[in-house]
Every structure is written in structure tokens, then in C-alpha cells.
Inverse folding.
């Protein structure tokens, strides 16, 4: 199989994850942060090790600012529903995934939260920021946006948007679903108040893991869930300190321990190296696909500054699901359809056919690209 | 050698605290709140030599770790 669906989840995972899961089963099966016996403390140490690794990776002030969640969507919901109140205004981009759009739309429908959609201009960060600026209102509380489109790979100027938010008394939530692990991200330097990321994409952890990194300790989020934290147990109220405040119930110990193995692997390889390699492959794909008469691409040639290694295309007006199915029959894993991103497809005029998304990971090589292009040419020729 | 426990808010603080104190040359061990520390409910403490307890608490506080109490091992008032 040629796996080009890394934006959905990366595959394969580093072999170190197998060892991590085995160690979990053999040595770290106790509940971390609940008991005082040796295995509980050893397990807690492993969880803390991952917390430290995430904190270091994203430049958080301290490991307590790392909250373990189920996935990126969970992290985003913690911020949106823990922060926004009746009458608040939020700005999102026209490339948002449903992970941001749907909770905000629900808050609009049921909780009196207002929102505006700002247009992203591909390859022009200043114009993008200007469009966000035009949406600012006196009651703007938050800019909540993707760091990079999961469908078209177009990046947003997160640091500039954070600056804009702060200049106007608002905060910034960055959905780093597609950038965590392939872009250098420093929440303090970039002014990111809240960073949401999945563990199972470019951090190369398992599914069922996600993180919320708090870049701004001055903001207190209301809780979505309350319950056992292993701390302050006699108190009826939820702890007021991180991470316990936002981490009720037993965490996904196995996943968290394995996540550390994934992060260690990308650190070893180097994020800059991973990014450069994936981008080179994306450019190779783009150049070849741009020369195919039946292939329609929707973005400019990918560049490091403005794009992620994610391409979307359609083939001869065919529905994207049909193309993805035919690719799958030839052993190529891509994703057709709408990628949970109605705004992005509306922006690009692809709401009828959707697009086929090709997304690269650190285990893809030039051979994968060559084989994919050969198969795509074959499919194209069969259409003529 | 007399020991004291520094009660902190959570296991995460205890983990970071232990690491910090070790970096400062203070031997520190994590343990579950027992004895007098149990009045704070379930939680964790960092055990150090009593002679180093105040310095250890100062270090923890300077790194943003909230010290709930300092108690001699075996209970009693700080």
C-alpha cells in the first residue's frame, strides 16, 4: 500500500511505539496520580515524561500547562466552551475544519455567541491579517483558527493573528491539527494563548490522544467535565490548578506513554528535516500533476512559507470519492470527499465533487510519489 | 536523619518538584499524603531532609509550585 492519507492520521507509526505499548502492559498498568504504591508512581512518572516532552516541544512555560485530551477536537471544545459567554464574538477563517466550525456554530445557535468568517488569502499573510482585522468588533473575545488547512495545505500567519488578537483585547486559539510535528511552534514566542493538537497525526502517537497547551496562564477556562483528579479529594469543587482542573478521570495512560515515543522520534529526526523532506515530495507531486491535463489542482505550487505538504485535486470532473476509490483499488490510500471542512470546499468551489487529498508523512519517500504518479496517469488515461 | 514532607497540589507538581530539587542537589522523593497530610485530601508530597525543607519549599515556590504545607514525617504541625 502507498499511504498518502497522513492528514487523517499518520501511518506507519515509529517502531518505538510497539515497545512503549509493551512496557505499558508489563510495567505501567497502574492508575497514575491516584495511588501511592510503586507502580502507580512509576506510571505517573511516565505520564509526566510525556507532559514534559509536549511542553518542551511547544515552548510552554511549564509541564502543568499541558492538558491531555482525547483528540484535537476535544482540546478545541475545552477552549471554546470554557471561554466563550453570551454576547462574545469570535473570528474564524474560511478554511476551518468542523472541529472549530461546529462548536462555534452551536454556541451561536444556543448560547448567543456571535462569529465572523475571515477570508484567507493564499500566499499573502498581510492580506489575510487585514481580513481578520476587518472582522474585529468591540466584543471580539477570540480568534480561533487553523494553523494550516487540512484540505488545501494553506497556512495561516498564526503569530501575526495572535498579535492582532492581543492588540484588540482578544485571545488566540490555534488549531494545530496539521502543523504540530511538522512546523516549529512556540506558544510563548508566537503569542498563542491556546494550542490544540492531536497526538496521532504528525506527533506520531496513537489515536485517542490529544493535547491542549495553555500559553496564557492568566486565563481560566470553565470546565467541561468535573470529577476525580486524585487531588483535593475532600473538596466538592473542582481543583483550580492545571492540569487537574481540566483533566478529570483517568487519562489514556497507554496512549500517552506511546505518544512520548512518537515525539521522541520526531525530535530525533528533526522537525525541520521532516518538513523539508515532505515539502520536497509535495512539490514533486505538484509539478508532475500540474502537467497532467485531466488533473485540476486548487492551490499554488507549495512553498515552505505558505504551505503544508497537503495537496487537493480532482480528476476530469469526476467525483473525488470515485477517484479515491479507484486509487484504493490500485493500492493507494488517499481521502476523497469533503474532509469535514465545508467552509474550505465552499471557498474553493468544490462542494459538488469534493477533492482527493494527498497528504505526506515522514515515512513517505520518492518511490511512493513515483508509484502514485504512475497510477494516477493510468487512471487519467482510462478516462480519455 | 529527620525527614519532612512538602505537601503540593498535585502529582504533576510533585513530579516537577522532585526534578527541580534533585537539580538543586536536594534528594527528594514523592509519596502519597499520609498522616497529617491526609487533612488536605488525596494528594502527593515531596519528602526531603528536615534540614533542607525550608530551602526546598523556597525553590518550589520560586518555580511556581504552590506549597500547601510542610510537615514532619509522622505527622504534627509545621
Amino acid at each position: 500500500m502507498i499511504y498518502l492519507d497522513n492528514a487523517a492520521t499518520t501511518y506507519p507509526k515509529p517502531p518505538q511505539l510497539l515497545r512503549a505499548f509493551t512496557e505499558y502492559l508489563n510495567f505501567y498498568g497502574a492508575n497514575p496520580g491516584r495511588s501511592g504504591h510503586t507502580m502507580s508512581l512509576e506510571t505517573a512518572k511516565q505520564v509526566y515524561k510525556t507532559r514534559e516532552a509536549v511542553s518542551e516541544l511547544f515552548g510552554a512555560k511549564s509541564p502543568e500547562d499541558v492538558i491531555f485530551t482525547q483528540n484535537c477536537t476535544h482540546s478545541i471544545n475545552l477552549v471554546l466552551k470554557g471561554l466563550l459567554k453570551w454576547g462574545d464574538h469570535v473570528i474564524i477563517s474560511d478554511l476551518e475544519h468542523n472541529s472549530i466550525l461546529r462548536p462555534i456554530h452551536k454556541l451561536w445557535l444556543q448560547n448567543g455567541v456571535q462569529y465572523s468568517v475571515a477570508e484567507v488569502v493564499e500566499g499573502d499573510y498581510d492580506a489575510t491579517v487585514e481580513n481578520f482585522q476587518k472582522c474585529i468588533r468591540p466584543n471580539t473575545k477570540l480568534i480561533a483558527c487553523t494553523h494550516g488547512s487540512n484540505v488545501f495545505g494553506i497556512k495561516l500567519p498564526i503569530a501575526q493573528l495572535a498579535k492582532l488578537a492581543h492588540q484588540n483585547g482578544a485571545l488566540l486559539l490555534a488549531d494545530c491539527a496539521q502543523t504540530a510535528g511538522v512546523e516549529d511552534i512556540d506558544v510563548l514566542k508566537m503569542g498563542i494563548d491556546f494550542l490544540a493538537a492531536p497526538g496521532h497525526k504528525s506527533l506520531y502517537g496513537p489515536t485517542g490522544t490529544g493535547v491542549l497547551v495553555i500559553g496564557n496562564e492568566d486565563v481560566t477556562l470553565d470546565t467541561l467535565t468535573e470529577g476525580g483528579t486524585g487531588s483535593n479529594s475532600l473538596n466538592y469543587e473542582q481543583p483550580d490548578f492545571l492540569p487537574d482542573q481540566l483533566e478529570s478521570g483517568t487519562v489514556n495512560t497507554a496512549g500517552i506513554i506511546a505518544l512520548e515515543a512518537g515525539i521522541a522520534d520526531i525530535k530525533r529526526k528533526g522537525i525541520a528535516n521532516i518538513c523539508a523532506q515532505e515539502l520536497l515530495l509535495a512539490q514533486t507531486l505538484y509539478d508532475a500533476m500540474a502537467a497532467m491535463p485531466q488533473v485540476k489542482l486548487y492551490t499554488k505550487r507549495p512553498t515552505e512559507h505558505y504551505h503544508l505538504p497537503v495537496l487537493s485535486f480532482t480528476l476530469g470532473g469526476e467525483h473525488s470519492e470515485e477517484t479515491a476509490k479507484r486509487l484504493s483499488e490500485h493500492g493507494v490510500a488517499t481521502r476523497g470527499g469533503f474532509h469535514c471542512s465545508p467552509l474550505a470546499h465552499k471557498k474553493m468551489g468544490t462542494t459538488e465533487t469534493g477533492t482527493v487529498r494527498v497528504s505526506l508523512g515522514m515515512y513517505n519517500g520518492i518511490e511512493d510519489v513515483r508509484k502514485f504518479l504512475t497510477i494516477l496517469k493510468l487512471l487519467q488515461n482510462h478516462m480519455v | 536523619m529527620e525527614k519532612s514532607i512538602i505537601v503540593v497540589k498535585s502529582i504533576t507538581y510533585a513530579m516537577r518538584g522532585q526534578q527541580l530539587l534533585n537539580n538543586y542537589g536536594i534528594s527528594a522523593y514523592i509519596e502519597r499524603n499520609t498522616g497529617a497530610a491526609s487533612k488536605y485530601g488525596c494528594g502527593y508530597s515531596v519528602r526531603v531532609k528536615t534540614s533542607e525543607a525550608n530551602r526546598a519549599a523556597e525553590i518550589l515556590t520560586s518555580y511556581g509550585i504552590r506549597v500547601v504545607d510542610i510537615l514532619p514525617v509522622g505527622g504534627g504541625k509545621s
